[in-house]
Amino acid sequence: MKTVAQTVIEADRFYTISAHTGNVIQAVEGAKDGACVRLGKYDHKPEQEWAFIRVGDGVYRIRNRASGKLLDLTMTGTANGTWLHLWEDVGGTSQMWTVQPTPEGTVRLRSSWASGKCVDTVGMGAAVGAVLQIWQEVPGADQLWTIAEVKDRVKRAPKKEAPAAEEAAVAETAAVEAAPAVETAPVAEVVAEEKPAAPAKKPAARKPRTTKKAAAKAEEAAKPAEETAAPAKKPAAKKTAAKAEEAAAPKAEKAPAKCRTAARKKTAKKTV
Fold first, then answer.
1. Dihedral over Cα of 115, 121, 126, 131: its sign
2. What is the pTM of this model?
3. What does the buried/exposed string (b/e) look like for 237-270 if buried means 16 or more CB atoms within 10 Å of the residue's CB?
4. Which residues make Cβ contacts (< 8 Å) with residue 133, sequence separation at least 6?
């Protein structure tokens, strides 16, 4: 016979209780007292998960995760065929169960109230919908249960994402380390492009010289025009002065003539 290690039951953890077919013990009718307990296919519902509250050596109260109510015996019965249901915690012995391990890794759940009778299924059924009851110990797998810890998906997610986060961090670090090399090349190009640009600004400083030369050339070009214009005006002035002199000359010459005539007249008068 092969021995299988038992699941270690710890406080503040939740577990499934499954039959040999894989179907699990679940609460059917919500949170009300007297809710029926049956087998069902496990689909991670809180009604299918249980906490084991230790009250003695191997003795526990079995609490439903959804309602917080305890696995109990209907009408605190002790006879074979008494059904199991959920009930609020009343501190009674009918809500206490002994977990008895087997070498195969399974357990028997014995009632502390009903003289150690075992949790069983009605009609020896292990299919979905089978109702739970207590029965005296009999050979077979119908009274053997497997307890497995619930691995919450919320708790597992960070563990799965951790490698991805680490890979992302490594990728970011590599990107940061590679970034300076990529940025250095453009900087060198900019510097190389800017150095030749400095001499290119010097011709801009020479523009005033070009303007001065143009002004000088403009002045030189203007001088001949002024010199040419000046001689043209001077002869005109000379001609005008000559004409004025010529016009004045006859008058001066005529004036003496008149004077002479007047003088002659005076002389003639005197002679008479």
1. negative
2. 0.56
3. eeeeeeeeeeeeeeeeeeeeeeeeeeeeeeeeee
4. 80, 81, 82, 83, 84, 119, 120, 121, 122
Q: Which two tokens stand for residue 191?
A: 């510097």
Give residue limits of the domains in the chain: 15-150
pLDDT at 163: 54
Q: How far is CA 15 from CA 48, 139, 145, in A?
A: 9, 25, 12
CA 157 to chain centre: 20
Residue 49 to residue 118: CA distance in whole angstroms = 20
Cα torsion through 151, 64, 40, 134, rounded to 10: 130
> Over the stretch 140-185, which tens digit does the pLDDT of each residue have?
899 999 999 998 754 444 444 455 555 666 566 665 555 544 444 4
For 2-46, strand residue ranges (E) read 15-18, 24-27, 37-40
Report d(CA 197, CA 9) in Å as an integer: 80
- Give the CA diameter of the chain: 207
Rg of the Cα atoms in the chain: 64
14 burial type by CB count under 10 A (0-12 exposed, 13-18 middle, 19+ buried):
middle
| 3-state secondary structure (DSSP) of residue 11 | coil
- Of the candidates 14, 121, 118, 9, the residue with the CA atom closest to the CA atom of residue 55: 9
- Would you say 82 and 119 are in contact if contact means Cβ atoms under 8 Å apart? no
The one-letter amino acid at 125: G
For 15-150, CATH gives: 2.80.10.50
Q: What is the pLDDT of residues 48-61, one digit of tens each?
A: 999 999 999 999 99
Taking each helix axis from N to C end, the angle separating 153-200 and 202-271, rounded to the nearest 10 degrees, works out to 40
